[in-house]
Design brief:
The chain is about 40% helix and about 30% strand. The chain is α+β, with helices and mostly antiparallel strands. The chain has a 6-stranded antiparallel beta sheet. α1 runs antiparallel to α2. The radius of gyration is 25 Å and the shape is rod-shaped.
Length: about 130
């Protein structure tokens, strides 16, 4: 089966492991076999590659881009002023494209990597109309 699961046994600490086989009476994982009745909760790991992941990645990219852009602009302005050049303030224009590019890269990474999502699978709750 190979799914990653998070188990909460009644008499032990929560653990994350890999499913080897599930039978009607037990769950065999990489390091143990658990009777279903001994488990309080079982959750299976999934990945989400949608809008949420893009927004998380974009948010991280925005922060990183703003920091990188600020550092780059300050360094370029300082170098310009040391050399006594004209129009040193124009280096600040680079802030926007640097921030935008890093934000877009962060969104792309967020979509590619995704976010982790744990879905409860045990105990089975009755469906509601």
């Amino acid at each position: 089966m190979g799914a990653r699961v998070r188990l909460q046994p009644q008499s032990a600490v929560e653990t994350t492991t890999t499913v080897v086989r599930a039978t009607p009476d037990s769950l065999l994982v990489a390091d143990n076999a658990w009777p279903w009745r001994a488990l309080e909760r079982v959750e299976v790991r999934g990945r989400q590659h949608g809008l949420k992941a893009a927004l998380v990645g974009g948010g991280i990219g925005l922060v990183v881009g703003a920091v990188v852009g600020t550092v780059a602009v300050k360094q370029a302005t300082a170098d310009c002023e040391r050399q006594h050049q004209d129009f040193c303030g124009l280096d600040a224009i680079a802030f926007v494209p640097i921030t935008l590019v890093v934000t877009l890269v962060g969104s792309g990474i967020g979509v590619a990597v995704g976010t982790e999502r744990w879905t409860p699978v045990w105990p089975v709750e009755p469906s509601r109309p």
